[in-house]
């Protein structure tokens, strides 16, 4: 791999002088020339060929009118006839593919297109045109074992002979049943939540994420040094897509979720998730916005589709692959493929990356933040990396929760992107986090937790499987959630940092340039594990407080943030939830009670009217006093007994900020460098 993150690949040569396998092609479609095809359209029919039939099957004649009153069974029959008609139309483009069952499953034909192969004649079908278009000549519908299915005229591959049950938008209760019956490691805990295992991967795999670099993304996306976007080409994406679709079509059943992103109705995105596990389906049921039955009936074609074949690995010998895991985004095709990881968070954050691309094109700012609203309608955004207190401080009993993680800031205000919350569970207690504790009930997914084998009571301190234990639940499980999850324009933008160096003040008021600088920096400091003897804090920078998910250059999001703050009169704040009186090991962490008092003063507006003075090096405006907070801790230098050590540590952190910002220095914002210069000038000055 090159230093800039690009992967260099070469051409593979044949081995041992063996002749290459030649595949016949016609109009760009591969043909299987291995042998004659079977004269059967289903596996059942193939088996029946061994025996003589005593009586022919009787087709059902006639079809219901499109808007006639009908029972649920007849409605499903008609939908299946529609699918059959869609597939019949598709035969002009490709032939061969699985037969789809419907129990309590939707069958509008559009997911048949979602499960279609695009390259092989011997694979699943491709549907062209409106997937909801009804066939003028409905095909035969037969009955077997109380299921409805259609019998398209296909006979060219084994995949065309099997049934694939599509379990469409199942309820949590139905998904519980599917998980308990079919997925090893799924249990109902004492609180009613569903405990599941995500397999070998218990967290995201950012080094295995790929984005197709093509004419759609070449100029728009952030590529190169510092970027999370590792490129792949269209052909490699199609190889992985085919592998995922083939795997899903090989299963007896797949789960399909049709849901929404973004509570702003004018900018809502329709998403479809095709997955192999009930765990994944329930997770996305909780995390995305759940459609009403009426919205589901009129859902139509999705704006974006995920193929989650995480139980099946990618081919490590495929170009651009560096492991058996690959998470691939194709923004031109509006598709995502997951191979080699069952960690459900890949779906959530993959869609967040998509929103980071789609929303700015509509002049809507996508944000990795928490968001709450006071009873007077004042909205606050909370940015912060892991361990900074973002979830704790944005969850406030005196304020309404709009969302805990992903938001949009558009022309009408803010909106939550998601329909649920994804909370960390390690060391969770009812006393510290009562809302999260109480949200872990029936319908909630618990990932990788450990529980008592008899009582099924969860031990949230246990790290046997992973420290990254999680709970995914619908946002309405939080008592003070604002429904729908929208609010007016923010009044305050709060950037949280857990500074383990102990030199940043507990609170600073930022001007616009400083807000952009610290937003782009995305700083916090983590304490290294003690097992290797390292006690020094380690600075962590993540652009826009979510570098792993952004698609455009960080300065573009920062410029949009500054423009919206200026237009709507929002104030920026830097709040340190870390150490005071010295670095980690010598000082002490700022008390949560003091931080809450600071946040309360920001919400009330009283901190705007305080008297301020400027610090050295970082040039931060710090208040002289805050009600309920000892005045001596507001300026960090007052809390250090060794002033020389304080100055050295302050300069050390300033140097880390400058080094981190080097990657952004050469990026111009706007038609000239004025804004870029303002941002650079807002950084530390030695």
From TrEMBL:
Keyword Nucleotide-binding: yes
MF annotations from Gene Ontology: ATP binding; phosphoenolpyruvate carboxykinase (ATP) activity
N-terminal signal peptide: none
One Gene Ontology term from the biological process aspect of the record: gluconeogenesis
Pfam family name, one: PEPCK_ATP
Family membership: Belongs to the phosphoenolpyruvate carboxykinase (ATP) family.
The protein, known as: phosphoenolpyruvate carboxykinase (ATP)
Organism encoding this protein: Rhododendron simsii (Sims's rhododendron)
């Amino acid at each position: 791999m090159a230093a800039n993150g690009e992967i260099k690949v070469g051409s593979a040569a044949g081995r041992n002088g063996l002749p290459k396998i030649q595949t016949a092609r016609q109009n760009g479609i591969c043909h299987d020339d291995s042998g004659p095809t079977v004269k059967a359209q289903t596996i059942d029919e193939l088996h029946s060929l061994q025996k003589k039939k005593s009586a022919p099957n009787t087709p059902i004649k006639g079809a219901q009118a499109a808007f006639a009153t009908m029972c649920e069974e007849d409605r499903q029959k008609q939908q299946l006839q529609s699918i059959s008609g869609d597939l019949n139309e598709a035969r002009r483009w490709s032939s061969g593919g699985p037969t789809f069952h419907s129990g309590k499953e939707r069958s509008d034909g559009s997911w048949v297109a979602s499960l279609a192969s695009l390259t092989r004649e011997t694979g699943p079908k491709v549907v062209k045109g409106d997937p909801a278009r009804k066939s003028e000549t409905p095909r035969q519908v037969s009955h077997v074992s109380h299921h409805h299915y259609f019998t398209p005229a296909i006979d060219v591959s084994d995949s065309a002979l099997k049934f694939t049950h599509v379990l469409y938008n199942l309820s949590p209760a139905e998904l519980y049943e599917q998980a308990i019956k079919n997925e090893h490691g799924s249990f109902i805990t004492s609180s009613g939540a569903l405990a599941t295992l995500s397999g070998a991967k218990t967290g995201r795999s950012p080094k295995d994420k790929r984005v197709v670099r093509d004419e759609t993304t070449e100029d728009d996306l952030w590529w190169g040094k510092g970027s999370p976007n590792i490129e792949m080409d269209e052909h490699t994406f199609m190889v992985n897509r085919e592998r995922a679709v083939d795997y899903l079509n090989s299963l007896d059943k797949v789960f399909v979720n049709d849901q929404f992103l973004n509570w702003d109705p004018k900018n809502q995105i329709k998403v479809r998730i095709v997955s192999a596990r009930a765990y994944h389906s329930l997770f996305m049921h909780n995390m995305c916005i759940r459609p009403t039955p009426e919205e589901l009936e009129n859902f139509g074609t999705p704006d974006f589709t995920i193929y989650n074949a995480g139980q099946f690995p990618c081919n490590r010998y495929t170009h651009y692959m560096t492991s058996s895991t690959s998470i691939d985004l194709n923004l031109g095709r509006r598709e995502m493929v997951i191979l080699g990881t069952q960690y459900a968070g890949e779906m959530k954050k993959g869609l967040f990356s998509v929103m980071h691309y789609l929303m700015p094109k509509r002049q809507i700012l996508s944000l990795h933040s928490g968001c709450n609203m006071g009873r007077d309608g004042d909205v606050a955004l909370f940015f912060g990396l892991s361990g900074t207190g973002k979830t704790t401080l944005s969850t406030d009993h005196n304020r309404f929760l709009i969302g805990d993680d992903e938001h949009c800031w558009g022309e009408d205000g803010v909106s939550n992107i998601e329909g649920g919350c994804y909370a960390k569970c390690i060391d969770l207690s009812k006393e510290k986090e009562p809302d999260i504790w109480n949200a872990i009930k029936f319908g909630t997914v618990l990932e990788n937790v450990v529980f008592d084998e008899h009582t099924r009571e969860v031990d949230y301190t246990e790290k046997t499987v992973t420290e990254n234990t999680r709970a995914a639940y619908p946002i309405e499980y939080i008592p003070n959630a604002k429904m729908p999850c929208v609010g007016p324009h923010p009044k305050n933008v709060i950037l949280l940092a857990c500074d383990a160096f102990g030199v940043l003040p507990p609170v600073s008021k930022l001007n616009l340039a400083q807000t952009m600088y610290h937003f782009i920096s995305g700083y916090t400091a983590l304490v290294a594990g003690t097992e290797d003897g390292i006690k020094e804090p380690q600075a962590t920078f993540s652009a826009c407080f979510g570098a792993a998910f952004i698609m455009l250059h960080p300065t573009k999001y920062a410029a949009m943030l500054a423009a919206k703050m200026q237009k709507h009169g929002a104030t920026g704040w830097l709040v340190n939830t870390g150490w005071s009186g010295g670095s980690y090991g010598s000082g002490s962490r700022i008390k949560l009670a003091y931080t809450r008092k600071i946040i309360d003063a920001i919400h009330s507006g009283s901190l705007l009217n305080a008297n301020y003075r400027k610090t050295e090096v970082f040039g931060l405006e710090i208040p002289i006093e805050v009600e309920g907070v000892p005045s001596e801790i507001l300026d960090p230098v007052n809390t250090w007994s060794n002033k020389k050590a304080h100055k050295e540590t302050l300069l050390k952190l300033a140097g880390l900020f400058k080094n981190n910002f080097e990657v952004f220095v050469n990026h111009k914002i706007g038609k000239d460098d004025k804004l870029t210069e303002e941002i650079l000038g807002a950084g530390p000055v030695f």
